Amino acid sequence: MHTPASDRYDSMVYNRCGHSGLKLPTLSLGLWHNFGDTARYDNMKAICLTAFDHGIVSFDLANNYGPEPGAAERNFGRILREELGAHRHELLISTKAGYGMWPGPYGDFGSRKYLLTSLDQSLQRMGLDYVDIFYHHRMDPDTPLEETMGALDQAVKSGKALYAGLSNYDGPTMAKAAAILTDLHCPFVINQNRYSIFDRTIEKNGLKDTAVRLGKGIIAFSPLAQGLLTDRYLHGIPEDSRMRTDGRFLKDNALTPERLAQITALNDLAARRGESLATMALKWILKDGAVTSVLVGASRPEQVLDDLKVLQSPDFTEEELAIIDRNS
Ligand SMILES: NC(=O)c1ccc[n+]([C@@H]2O[C@H](COP(=O)([O-])OP(=O)(O)OC[C@H]3O[C@@H](n4cnc5c(N)ncnc54)[C@H](OP(=O)(O)O)[C@@H]3O)[C@@H](O)[C@H]2O)c1
Fold first, then answer.
1. pTM of the entire structure?
2. Any domain includes 4
3. 182 Cα–ligand 1 center, Å
4. Average pLDDT taken over every residue of the chain
5. What percentage of residues in the chain have a pLDDT greater than 70?
6. Is residue 8 included in any domain, yes or no?
7. Domain containing 172: what range?
8. Which amino acid residue places its CA nearest to atom 24 of ligand 1?
9. Phi and psi (nearest 5°) for 129?
10. In 156-307, at which residue ranges do the beta strands (DSSP E only) sit?
11. What pLDDT, in 10s, does the model give residues 190-226?
12. Which atom of ligand 1 is nearest to 296's Cα?
């Protein structure tokens, strides 16, 4: 069992999640990539322990993270069993269901059948009695919102989740879901959405404003645009990068000459601020206090350490924000 750093809570800042009693670390760690069965166990363990030793107590999973789907939960379950299980009460572990998980009519989208069956499987893979947050992973245009929200409520009322969350919802749909969950007295506290300098959808689809208005938290995923908002791709595509090793979600056609010029300009600005582009990109998300936690991924422990520097990053000047806007 891992002996954690005794100073692990000294420098992390914990932010209140909307108007709830729950706090999240400024940085959370996501296990979407680099935690499947094609990844090295020692490395995933080192990433998680580095995070925990620096106060990152929030670990984000989903039923389908792999490859194979389910592998990330299984591998994280092993890390819990062998290293972190004695600290379960200090951890905020989340999982989700909503994307395709198994064949047939019950393994996708938002039915009660899918969500509750999937949660049972997630708990089994991780060796847990409960998760801290159970998310519906994406909006389902066909299932009545009452059914999906009823399933989240059931997950909480059965003791298998402590809080409910919504992922990839837009503002109006989230508001409708929130009203249903309020009627059910279900503790819906957080939204998980993509948000970065390069992807500001939640500013346009009402999610960000609605979350603030309703007192709900936001955890921002892919804050580094999967690695584009770092120094990784400044001088070509590294062999060990996500773009090369797993081209499913970050394809090389994302690195257009225009994009590269933006990344270079942003990297120059970060250098003038005395920080890495990754640090600056994370700070940008936190700049107005609407986001509770930024949810980073990492392929090695050193990246987690670099991302943690966001805690020391200076506020932006108006001029810096304008340069960022011009390069997004
Ligand atoms: N709810 C949803 O639908 C949804 C969707 C996507 C993601 N998520 C969640 O969000 C988490 C994070 O997503 P993401 O992995 O796309 O986030 P990200 O933080 O935008 O990208 C992570 C990648 O950036 C690179 N990186 C990280 N720190 C770096 C640093 N300091 N310097 C240089 N490069 C650095 C690494 O790339 P290399 O691997 O190339 O080294 C790393 O794998 C996921 O694990 C998952 O939990 C949720």
1. 0.98
2. no
3. 32
4. 97
5. 100
6. no
7. 14-230+287-315
8. 227
9. -85, -25
10. 161-167, 188-194, 217-221, 293-296
11. 999 999 999 999 999 999 999 999 999 999 999 999 9
12. 19
